[in-house]
Amino acid sequence: MSHHKHSHHDVAFGIDIGGSGIKGAPVDLHKGEFAADRLRIPTPQPATPAAVAKTVAEIVDSFDLDKKVPIGVTFPAVMLHGVAQSAANVDKSWIGTDAQKLFSDATDRTVVAVNDADAAGFAEVAYGAAKDVDGVVLVVTLGTGIGSALIVDGQLVPNTELGHLEIDGHDAESRAAESVRDREGLDWEQWAQRLQRYFTVVENLFWPDLIVVGGGVSKHHKDFLPLLDIRTKIVPAELRNAAGIVGAAALAAQEDDDD
Ligand code: BGC
Fold first, then answer.
1. Is 236 in a helix, a strand, or coil?
2. Domain residues for 35?
3. 153-209 pLDDT per residue, tens
4. What's the mean per-residue pLDDT of the chain?
5. Ligand 1 pocket test: which of 73, 97, 116 has the largest number of ligand atoms within 8 Å of its C-beta?
6. Does the beta carbon of 16 sit less than 6 angstroms from any atom of ligand 1?
7. CB distance 179 to ligand 1 below 6 Å
8. Which residue has the least CA distance to atom 5 on ligand 1?
9. FRET partner for 193 with CA separation of 20 to 30 A, picked from 27, 87, 99, 110?
10. Is residue 38 a contact partner of residue 239, using CB atoms and an 8 Å limit?
11. Rounded distance between C-alpha atoms, residue 125 and residue 237, angstroms
């Protein structure tokens, strides 16, 4: 059974704002794939709201988009109705910034701004590793921080922020994020022990039907997923680094359909 309702749009545009690059591409909403090559521009430093908005506009302008094409943008922070509420790994000046209004003004179009993990998670449910999965799906992205997306029968519960669970007295992402593996020089086994603790707490609180692991490191899933001993079925993400763009586009199309 598929929960993914087909949008009346065939194409939407997705933009993924990351710490090192801002990437955008038109997305075929039937396939959940890029409809043309993506464009990547390095993230301006410092990544202030004004500088990022300028880059977002540059990306949109470089594609010949009909004004009716919905545009979705991901941002790595809590996004309440398009307004950034946190800034764990981004410039603090984002807190309180109405990203949706900023990007809409910069591009002269309606733009929807969503949390990065929510976009990636929505894409996995609509087109990837959790396609056609009934019940509760939890998508966890392992990167600079830890992001989460909770999707229940195809419906996203936004801004779950499970990377910031306090576990053993620590902010979980400060122990188990992919950036920590790198920073502390952990081997796969050592990092897997951190993930074991993290996913055990998470599965005992949420009892998901499926956990999907995303983020760049998910391409190395064979090195660490088999080391985990948890009750919940856990699988790697399928959309890899396209997930943010595809999910942002799909969420923007869904929001436009709902209006
Ligand atoms: C942020 C989340 C974000 C995650 C992944 C966390 O530090 O609080 O909003 O989804 O990192 O980028």
1. strand
2. 11-118+242-258
3. 999 999 999 999 999 999 999 999 999 999 999 999 999 999 999 999 999 999 999
4. 96
5. 116
6. no
7. no
8. 147
9. 87
10. no
11. 10
